[in-house]
Amino acid sequence: MPILHSIIHRIDTASGETPTLTPAAEELASSAALDDLLAGVNDAFNAKPKAWGYFVDATPEGEVSSPFATELADFLDGGRDFATFSRDVAQRLAELISDHLTLSGDLLMVDQRVGDARYLSLALLHHRSGFGVDDDLAVVPVRQLNLTQMSLAARLDINQWRGESPSKQYLSWTRDRGGKKLAEGFAALLGAAEGVDATGETRTLLKAFSDYVEQEDLPEQASREKTDALIDYASDQASRGEPITLEELSEVLDEQQPQAFYEHIRNADYGLSPEIPPDKRTLNQFRRFAGRSGGVSISFDSHLLGSSVEYDEDQDRLIIKQVPKQLREQLKRQE
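Now predict its structure.
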């Protein structure tokens, strides 16, 4: 993963007043430490709740929504150097921090290639106090980067953005659920609009999967295996910052009939995009409860608990509000 350009600018709010920007004079030199840091930043970013979208070219009034995309294009076309471009971004970020944060941080910006793709990443890295041991074996205070506290970060797929048919999910950025105005301000700074609802799309995908399992009337073991395969694949994609590809997922679910699930989605018209940005929180909530006893076998998706299925712990019973169609028809015939 060659790093083409990288730099760090410091944004200091220690004084409690307007944040001050200390820009770097030049780009960072390549090093193993920088590679390791970037890997850690990517892992932390992939674990964060994110929005996925695209650059808005102009507001309804005809004004450019943000200079970020314009300045980035100018850098990519050779009109300005990376240090100048990143410093201007850092200056605007300092103004945003002034309104919403009291924490200092270092803005890391990286332009890198990963295979045939090219990405621009930026992350505001905060610090925490820690301890170390020096060469004289004495305990000394040290400042450490706290990657888990990453409050502002974004990643742009440059090739997708500048391609002939750009999607509406080539840009992703952190969306802190506890800081709505900060997230909105960050999106405005980037000039970004959401192009896809990752949470909604993931829920729809899981609903499509539940319908597919019910339609196929799969044995419990087969149903559980397919559920585990879906979650494992989707979680792996999320951990790598990659979207769920429906055709690829279909192949993972059934090697003998690799198009079966994909055809189910297409024929039922769930309105899903060919590629879906996974929402990890939604995925983590999706598991199947199952049990068998005395000739009764029950299984259902965990996200249905509390809605379609209720558990009365005092009387140790399940209440099923929506009886499956096939089962309902069998019960009617028996009556």
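The chain has eleven helices and 15 strands.
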